[in-house]
């Protein structure tokens, strides 16, 4: 039961940070000149790239930290601050904005990175691998990206149903949850250094 609970927490946290529903208006705008089939191929490629990126960090997360001699607690604080900045930006603008677009590789940049797999998702994946283990981390990545793929396949009716106002409201609501996760990251790291307590991360 404990592993199921950890898996559920990881899935929910990663889904909130990836935020495919809140980013729907951006995805629609980026692919507005594409045919339906071309749009689907673009999203499918973006999901594959996102899967490779997240699993790369899941598998190499420990090595990356070791190479730079960074403790997981320092990474939690740094990642938490970064997540907090991202959430504030979304709350102010209503969405994550990326102005530098590449028309030739739009599925990789900016859809896969940084919209789906941004600093927040990377941070959470590296932290998860340290706190809940490889299996839970990789399964949560697969589940979240599969759900994201289903959402992107139904992007047109979902976007029409939500409307511009609904999309902005959901985006800002997700930003509040991202901010809460960020505070938990920071608090956990600070507690370790202040009290020497090896406390598990919570969401």
Automatic annotation (TrEMBL):
The chain crosses the membrane at residues 12-31, 43-65, 77-96, 108-127, 133-152, 173-194. Keywords: Cell membrane, Membrane, Transmembrane, Transmembrane helix. InterPro entries: Multi_antbiot-R_MarC. It comes from the Archaea. It is a multi-pass membrane protein. GO terms for cellular component: plasma membrane. Its main location: membrane. It is found in: Cell membrane. Pfam families: MarC. Belongs to the UPF0056 (MarC) family. This is UPF0056 membrane protein.
């Amino acid at each position: 039961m404990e592993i199921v609970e950890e898996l559920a927490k990881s899935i929910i946290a990663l889904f909130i940070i990836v935020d495919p529903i809140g980013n729907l208006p951006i995805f629609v705008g980026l692919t507005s000149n594409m045919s339906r089939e071309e749009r689907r191929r673009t999203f499918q490629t973006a999901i594959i790239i996102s899967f490779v990126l997240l699993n790369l960090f899941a598998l190499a997360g420990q090595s990356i930290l070791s190479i730079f001699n960074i403790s997981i607690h320092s990474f939690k604080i740094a990642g938490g601050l970064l997540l907090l900045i991202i959430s504030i930006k979304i709350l102010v603008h209503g969405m994550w904005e990326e102005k530098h677009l590449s028309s030739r590789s739009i599925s990789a940049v900016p859809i896969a990175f940084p919209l789906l797999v941004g600093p927040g998702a990377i941070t959470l994946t590296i932290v998860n691998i340290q706190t809940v283990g490889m299996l839970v981390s990789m399964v949560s990545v697969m589940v979240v990206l599969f759900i994201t793929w289903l959402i992107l396949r139904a992007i047109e009716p979902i976007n029409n149903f939500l409307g511009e106002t609904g999309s902005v409201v959901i985006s800002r609501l997700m930003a509040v949850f991202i901010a809460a996760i960020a505070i938990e990251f920071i608090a956990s790291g600070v507690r370790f250094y202040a009290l020497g307590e090896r406390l598990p991360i919570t969401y």
